[in-house]
């Protein structure tokens, strides 16, 4: 559930300018204005756009019964998306400003990242139980 919530949050408003709101992907398209052109901008864009396939890989690994590998991928996903969302959330909602951060996208992404990390840690720390039959006794 955390993966879906986090990805959904990336499509919610992250930036508002006047009466216009932009999601995180539209904000990335403004990277030239922020001076992130070149290699740095390409790396940031590639990592952020790669979050959705990373979430799908984690879910697919879990479905095909590789839960620990899926949890490691989910931890990577949660760390990246959570860090970016936390930074945006800390910057806060600038009420009344002409240009500012819209809080709904970062908060939703952060909540999903926290759920993802908690779930991944739970999977990694759980022990696998197996029934062992002893001759003439109870399992």
UniProtKB/TrEMBL annotation:
Alphabetical UniProt keywords: Membrane, Transmembrane, Transmembrane helix
**Is the Membrane keyword given for this protein?**
yes
Taxonomically, which superkingdom? Bacteria
Which positions, given as ranges, span the membrane?
41-64, 71-91, 97-124
Q: What is this protein called?
A: Uncharacterized protein
The organism encoding this protein is: Lentzea jiangxiensis
